[in-house]
Amino acid sequence: MRGITLPSWNTDDYAGPQAGTYLRQIADTGARWVTFTPTWYQDTVTDAAMRTTDETASDASLRHIIRLAHEAGLKTMLKPHVDLTKGGDRAEIHPGDADAWFAAYERFITHYAGLAADAGVEQFAVGTELAGTSGDGAHWSRVVAAVRERYKGTLTYAANYDEYRKVAFWKDLDLVGIDAYWPLGDKPTTDTARLRQAWQPIVDELAAFSARTKRKILFTEAGYVSQRGSTTAPYSWTVSKRDGDAEQAAGYEALLATFDGKPWWAGVCWWMWDDWPDSGETAKKLAYTPHGKPAEKVLRRWWLRGE
Questions:
Q1: What is the CATH number of the domain that holds 231?
Q2: How far apart are the C-alpha atoms of 135 and 1, rounded to whole Å?
Q3: What is the model's pLDDT at position 305?
Q4: Which of 19, 106, 116, 117 has its CA 20 to 30 A from that of 66?
Q5: Can you spell out the DSSP letters for 150-181?
């Protein structure tokens, strides 16, 4: 998978005038996949249900952008998210009533499974970084079974890098998905060799995990902000306020050079392409996007070789 995520933050982002432009730009990097992230919300980590808000991509906009992606020659992954309206990490969601929460979650995720089936989406993630629940194999197995009734394509779950070993339902899925935000050191660096060395124990760990689960491993997310220190905390939007284009590019280069050709590695979907106009909280020059930066040149070099 050579992919890039195009998230949405508002109801009509995916129907906006920039949608076609962004997809063409993504395809021009050599990407062959794009991921979309419709998001529902709950107020607190113990709530028993999630709901749409004015930040949830509308179904019409989602169908629209999936069609545009296919027209641009891109395959699609749908990766619905649950977030918190009052701030906090979705990994900390730990419902007070597990039965009620999973019943609500099943309604949420099967809604998108049906939409994915209708729209010809090629791959589907049944959840993202829900570490407070992903050890509950019985509930999750029922959720996955309900998804499979509606959607016949490839299924994964996007576990955070510090969560994937605790996920109890990999046997129910086709791919192990990991959001690959491992810190690669405690000091900023643009030394690709040093970063590749930092990846080596993780490579060994993942190869063994793939063999144990009999599943290939997909990096459902990976990325680095354009900030000095981004490789020390790839999961952070706010590592520093200092330009880090070179460090971002080194992070891209090290990951692709390390994992390319590994028979158990299914590829990567980078987080993320440009924010929609007027929606970004982080200035583009400091944000995760590789667009117009040295990291985009790294992608083109790796993904357009031989084409």
A1: 3.20.20.80
A2: 27
A3: 85
A4: 106
A5: H--SEEEEEEETTTGGG-S-GGGSSSEEEE--
